[in-house]
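Good morning C.,

I know you're traveling, so I'll keep this short. The sequence:
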Amino acid sequence: MKLESKLLVSLGKRAGNVVLRRDLSELAGPTQLSEGISRLVGSGRLVRLGAGLYAKAQPDPTGRARLLAKPVELVREVFEKLGVSVRAVELGMDSGQPVVIVDAGDQRVTRKLDVAGIPVQYVQHNVRDRGFETLPLDLNAMPTKGVSRFIERFARAHGISYVRTGLDDYAEAVTRTAGDDVVLDATGKLLATLKKKNLINGRQLARLMTNYTREMKRVRSIRRLRKRGISA
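The tokens, ready to paste straight into the viewer:
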């Protein structure tokens, strides 16, 4: 039996849709195995996800590989097979392009993965951000100084990074309601993401955005005064 046929038989017997190269190592030597896997990738039977990681596939009528599971499901299975525990895996958007976002918790994960052109990004918690998991119940207790830094640490404590959503428009509307016609920056976008994740409510978003905007106005005013040689 040819190696390619042996590989197909082995793939058919394996549960799941993710295959580790090391699981096929008993079928041939390193060089032969690489050649066999390369042929299966070329024929649309496998899709490379990363170093030593492949996803089962079926060729479509044009011969192109068609994955048998969704990107999020495949990434979850990758980490299960690798024995790495992750908190969450979800599909998001970054600069208008789809990405798979993996919440790796406190672990440092650097494995490069790509699912049929969709890259995988990691959100990792920082132990220095522990203690920032909750917000004050009293809106008046929200910080008025260092607001951007506070928001960033709160987000990191929950494994959140900014991903563009329609809620950006909502956050921009909040700034206009507060009398501030500003372009939503990275901090505002991060607040919109926190709202989308239900980690803050509308009133908290409005207060944090207002405090942040007012602080930025104060900073800009002080800078203008200093440029004119006037003491703040």
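Safe travels,
E.
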